[in-house]
Amino acid sequence: MRYDKSIIKTPNNPEGVESKKLKNLDVFARIESEIITRSSELSRIKLQLAFTK
User: Fold this and answer.
1) Are 11 and 17 in contact (CB under 8 A)?
2) Is the dihedral of CA 37, 38, 42, 48 positive or negative?
3) HSE (CB half, 13 Å, CA atoms) of 40?
4) What CA–CA distance (Å, rounded) separates 33 from 28?
5) How far does the chain reach from its first CA to its final CA, in angstroms?
6) Residue 28 to residues 18, 24, 42, 47, Cα–Cα distance (Å)
7) Alpha carbon distance 26, 34 (integer Å)
8) 2-50 residue pLDDT tens
9) Per-residue 3-state assignment (H helix, E strand, C coil) for the chain
10) CA 45, 50, 51, 53 torsion: positive or negative?
């Protein structure tokens, strides 16, 4: 298979790429925080259900 250089493009704006990376990291951090919050709430509910039986 022949290598075609036009397939791989370098970013025109490296600062924009860094900005997108930072934004994505922020989004992932918020998602992770939400997952932790919900899983701790779920654990609390499970404990409450275990004690009410």
Assistant:
1) yes
2) positive
3) 5
4) 8
5) 66
6) 15, 6, 21, 28
7) 12
8) 666 666 666 677 778 888 899 999 999 999 999 999 999 999 999 999 9
9) CCCCCCCCCCCCCHHHHHHHHHHHHHHHHHHHHHHHHHHHHHHHHHHHHHHHC
10) positive
